[in-house]
Structure formats: structure tokens, C-alpha cells
Amino acid sequence: MRWGWLLLAAWLPGSLLAQDAGDRALADSEALMQEAAASQQRIEQLDDATRDALRRYREALQEREQLTVYNARLQDMVAAQRGELESLQAQLASIEGTQQAVLPMLQRMVDSLERFVELDLPFQPEERAERLAQLRDLMNRADVSLAEKYRRVLEAYQIESEYGRSLEAWRGSLDGDGTTRVVDFLRLGRLMLFYQTLDGREQGYWDPKENAWVTLSDRYRRSLEQGLRIARQQQTPVMLRLPLPPVTELEVQQ
Predict the structure, then answer these.
(1) pTM higher than 0.70
(2) What single-letter DSSP state applies at residue 218?
(3) Confidence of residue 22 (pLDDT cuts 50, 70, 90)
(4) What contacts 11, CB < 8 A, 6 or more positions away?
(5) Is residue 215 within 8 Å of residue 202, measured between CB atoms?
């Protein structure tokens, strides 16, 4: 019996040692498994990070390519705009030179038009003088463009040119012998300028050579009355028997 107890006593410490070793082995195994799992997790994380970094790298390469193309196009645009700017600067310089040449020319045109009106038949004097005064004022204004000045001068020339192709009648004042009378005027283009008193008892014409009004005989009274009605569109056109300048004078005027 003592031997049995002795054997049991001897066997118990060894068994406890073996169990303890197994527990430690199990714990170590679990620790290794946990460490392996942690390592696997870290590997997976690193793998995810690598894939993310690769994705961002590829996106960066694509963005770089897009920026390269954009910069190339931007450089082309800048070069084109620079060329356009240089062209505009050249045009502005040309316009300034043109203005320096055109403005004196317009001034000469206004001077010529004024002299022409002075030498022309004395019809619509107030209207024509007002038009010339407006042109004079326009030439001195800095807030009016050169194009507008040019347009207005041509417009004045056009109006004066139309006078030579029109028949016109109007009522106005006639000065003579120290008196002023209201008469009817009749203009035949630029050939002749007639007048007739309102009672029809007197008629006459402007003589450019004498620079004065000359009285006409009564035989032209009816013709002038018809001419006035035709000009006012109160009668259909008919042949009028009125005095005209000689053919030689007409050729000189043309």
C-alpha cells in the first residue's frame, strides 16, 4: 500500500508538469495563431493600401496626361491671342494714321461745300446754312467718331446733289428795294430759281451773272402758276414755257 501511494505521489508531479507544458503549448499555439491572423490582417491592409496607392498613381498619370494636353492647347490659345493682339495694335496704329489723314480731308470737303452753296442759286438759305453750321460744329467735337463725321458730310453732299434732280416749291421771304415780301418760289433743279407774288401780279428769276433778281413779263405768269402746282403735286406734269439759261452756260455749270 505504501508503494502504491508512493507511485501515485511520484506520478502526480509528472502528470502536472505534462499538463502545464500542454497548456503552455496550447497558449503558444493560440498566440501564434493570433499573431498569424494579425500578420494576415496587416498583409491585407498593406495589400489594400498598395492597391489604393496604385489606383491613385494611375489617376495621377491620367491627370498628368490631361494637364499636358490642356497646357498644350492653352499655349496655342495664348499664341493665337498674342497674334490677334498684335494685329489689333497694328490696326489701331493704322486707324490713327487714317484719322490724321481723313479729318483734314473732311474739313476740306466742308469748306468746298460751303463755297459751293455760296455760289449756288440762293434757295433754302436758312436750311442750308444751318446744315453747314452743324457740320462745322461736328468737325470740332471729340466725342463724335470719325465714321459718324464722314457719314454726316456725305449725307450733306447727297442732299445737295438731290437738289439738282428735283422740282421744289415753297413760300418764303424775298428781300428787295428795302422791303421784304412773302412770295412763292419755284426751283427747277439747279437750272433756274423763280418767284411769284401771292397775287400773281409779279414774277421773276435769279440771275447768277448779275447776282440779283430779274423781273419777268406777264406772259410767264400762267406757266409759273402751273409749275408751282406741279411741284406741290396739285397737277399732273405738263410742258412749261419758262426761260432757261443758254446751252453754253449749262455746259459750263456741268
Answers:
(1) no
(2) G
(3) low
(4) none
(5) yes
- Rounded Cα distance between 6 and 2, Å, is 6
Place of cell 494637364: 67
Q: How confident is the model at residue 62 (pLDDT cuts 50, 70, 90)?
A: confident
Instruction: Please determine, for residue 12, whether its predicted confidence score (pLDDT) is greater than 70.
Output: no
- The region that residue 153 occupies, defined by phi over 0 for left and psi between -120 and 50 for alpha, beta otherwise, is alpha
Burial class (CB in 10 A: 0-12, 13-18, 19+), 141: exposed
E-assigned strand segments in the chain: 167-176, 179-188, 192-197, 203-207, 212-216
Tabulate helix, strand, coil % of the chain (nearest 5): 70, 15, 20
User: What is the rounded CA–CA span in Å between residue 103 and residue 143?
Assistant: 14
